[in-house]
Amino acid sequence: MNMTNRNFVRGLFIMLIALGFGGAALRYPIGTLSRFGPGLFPLMISGLLFLVGLATVIRARFTAPEPLNYNFKNILIILVALCGFVVVSHFLNMLLGIVFLVFVSTLAGTSYSVVRNLKISAGLIAVAYGFKYLLGLNLPLL
């Protein structure tokens, strides 16, 4: 298979991510299905993700190849957004970090909408509050 086929490379990348998370899950006790340990759920999810990647690779064999191209400007924008999220979250708070991440990362898209960015930010902030107050994670939201 040609490594310039976007669908093929996408499937390989998904499989690689699944293997990485599956390998990390194996560091924890798996347990049994009746009394499972902390490693079973991530292992099951990574197994399903691996199957999605495998299906993508197989499907790429039977569909017309899509050319793989790299837009280094967009890669740089995403890296700046991720690094900025970490810096803003560390020195200010995570809520501002989330807003920064959304507004900067969407510069890499084909269209830019402030209203859409505000909606995405609100949704991610709601998820962060859910993680903090419903799941008890220690997130520096304020």
TrEMBL record:
Transmembrane intervals: 12-30, 36-58, 70-88, 94-115, 122-141
A UniProt-annotated Pfam family: TctB
Sorted UniProt keywords: Membrane, Transmembrane, Transmembrane helix
InterPro entries membership: DUF1468
UniProt KW S-adenosyl-L-methionine keyword: no
UniProt domain DUF1468: residue ranges: 11-140
Protein name listed in UniProt: Tripartite tricarboxylate transporter TctB
Organism of provenance: Bordetella genomosp. 12
